[in-house]
Amino acid sequence: MKSSTEKTGRVLPFLQNEEHYFKRGIHAFQKRELDRAVKYLKKAIDMDPTQGVFQCQLAVVYSDTGEYEESNRLLWHVLEDLDSSLSECYFFLANNYVYLGLFDKAKEMAESYLTMQPEGDFSKDARDLLDLLLEDEEEENNQQEEELIMKYEKSERLMKTKQFAEADQILEEIIADYPDYLPAKCQLARLLHEQDRSEEALALVKDIAREHMYLPALCQLAVLYAEMGRDTEAQETAEMLKNIIPLDKSHLFYAASTLCRLGFYEESRLLFERYVKRHAPTQEGFHLFFGASAYQSGRTIQAEQQWKQSMNKDNHTAGELLKHWKEDGLSTEAVQSAVKEHYKL
């Protein structure tokens, strides 16, 4: 008996369309293979970026990996730009805001979901969430803090899309209302630098570093000096940074990545090792920077391990570095260039 191929004289292709990758992403997520789930869902989105369901599912995966802000960014993108009828986005936002400690915002999102879907798939969970939130109402100062964080997050989103005037207005408002909120001042310095107002940025960061000994400001100061060609001052500031062991997890990552950016690779590598002994890496670029520090310190096995982990998280730069390393050898300049490209001031 002849096969279907012999009868028709042709081979039917196996189509790998966006639905195929979406289903693979769902399957990986159900098996708790979260890195693979992210990989396949991103492929589905690349093939059809207009499908809100794809991006909503990726946001759910990011919630499971603890990347709540990135999850929220995707969910708001779906609601504002793709499909405002995807009511489940509000439920997922509510859960994310709970984990971020923004309880009033979580309450608002849960209520929005129930308004749209009073008998929906998540209606019971949404009501349970509201009951928990209502048991412990936030005081007025906590409400103000939530509003502050929301405004700060909005300024970050605006900066990513180069809407500098709008971001500047929000940051100036935050600084006027909350003069002790140092992240907003550092964010404003970054904004000034991106607008080629580096001297103003430098003056602002120097004031923060001098008055408060705020580590992110010290990191910014060192990199600003380096990018402005003031190498002696960059070196002096980096020496100060090398003598600090941050306790805060985000500060530890910032110090390690900054020392990598400035070329202090062994010191950077040791801070990254300290980090992984205490915390699970979640920051974008973590494995890329750790691998660069290891490679430049002569720890090639460690570098390869870190860059492979970075590749698994869809960091194409790490893949390019590994490719050149295996084929032609890898120069110090190429590694430095990759670090500069991904470092955020």
UniProtKB/TrEMBL annotation:
Q: What is the lineage of its organism?
A: Bacteria, Bacillati, Bacillota, Bacilli, Bacillales
PANTHER family, A to Z: LIPOPOLYSACCHARIDE ASSEMBLY PROTEIN B, TPR REPEAT-CONTAINING PROTEIN PA4667
TPR repeat ranges per the UniProt record: 18-51
Specify whether Coiled coil is a keyword of the entry: yes
Signal peptide range equals none
- Give the top-rank taxon of the lineage listed in the UniProt record for this protein: Bacteria
What SUPFAM superfamilies does this protein's entry cite? TPR-like
Q: Which residues form a coiled coil?
A: 127-155
**Protein name from the UniProt record:** Lipopolysaccharide biosynthesis regulator YciM
What InterPro entries does its record include? CellSynth/LPSAsmb/PSIAsmb, TPR-like_helical_dom_sf, TPR_rpt
The protein's UniProt keywords, in alphabetical order, are: Coiled coil, Repeat, TPR repeat
